[in-house]
Write a structure and sequence with these properties.
It contains 9 helices and no strands. The protein is mainly alpha-helical and 235 residues long. It is flat and about 75 Å long. The protein starts with a helix and ends in a 7-residue tail after the last helix. Keywords: Membrane, Signal, Transmembrane, Transmembrane helix. It is found in: Membrane.
Length: 235
């Protein structure tokens, strides 16, 4: 039963690779039949679990309620999407984001729930570090707007360079990962090589200091919650 449950959970999650939009699209009928099959298996597994569990215990378990609600909403969304498709009305399968619920809430996924709850308990404790990082990002973005916003600089595509505050925040946020380095600094560097000091300071503060601090806080708190969580808390 455990192997079969994991197989159909994996199959259900894998349907996202073949549903629109997808790299390897399959006909809607094929993906919908497979999804209905998976949901029927989940419903059968839940029914079997209800047969061997006390009635009061079964209905007090929020995991069972979550699975039933997810099955009902998935079937409803699939039916609505199919009807709209018949009338050539474009819509979105919003229930696909609920598929990880099956992976987390089945009784066989105790260790996954343990990891998930450790992550949930860790989030409040890393909020302060995240807020400090966002404050630093916003301040550097404001400085960039004052430094470059009025100099009429342009990117390689001919677009205004660092003239919109929200776009600056996004560009510098991506720069934390160094994914757009050094492209994001080249228009300023071409204007004056001294402007490279601004981006060097930004990378040192946010990439090397804040990201290292953020990773350390996440790791230590996650390990602490994973270690102190009793085994029974996973149920």
């Amino acid at each position: 039963m455990r192997t079969a449950t994991y197989f159909f959970i994996f199959l259900n999650l894998s349907l996202a690779l073949f549903e629109e939009p997808a790299v390897y699209p399959l006909p809607f009928l094929a993906t919908s039949v497979l999804e209905v099959l998976c949901l029927l298996v989940f419903l059968g597994r839940l029914t079997h679990f209800a047969k061997v569990t006390l009635h009061n215990v079964f209905w007090k378990d929020t995991k069972n309620i979550c699975i039933m609600v997810a099955i009902l909403l998935s079937l409803t969304d699939l039916a609505i999407y199919g009807v709209l498709r018949l009338y050539d009305v474009r819509s979105i399968r919003w229930s696909r984001i609920m598929r990880p619920i099956f992976l987390i809430n089945f009784a066989e996924s105790r260790q996954i729930r343990r990891a998930f709850r450790s992550i949930r308990n860790t989030l409040p404790e890393i909020t302060y570090v995240f807020l400090l990082f966002m404050f630093s990002l916003l301040m550097f973005s404001l400085m960039a707007l004052k430094l470059f916003g009025e100099r009429n600089l342009q990117t390689a595509e001919g677009l205004p360079y660092f003239s919109n505050y929200l776009e600056i925040v996004f560009d510098l946020y991506v720069l934390v990962t160094t994914a757009n380095s050094p492209d994001v600094m080249m228009p300023a560097f071409d204007f004056s090589s001294w402007y490279a000091l601004f981006f060097i300071a930004f990378v040192i503060v946010n990439t090397y200091i804040f990201m290292s601090l953020f990773l350390a806080v996440v790791y230590n708190n996650y390990k602490k919650h994973l270690k102190v969580m009793p085994e029974g808390a996973c149920d």
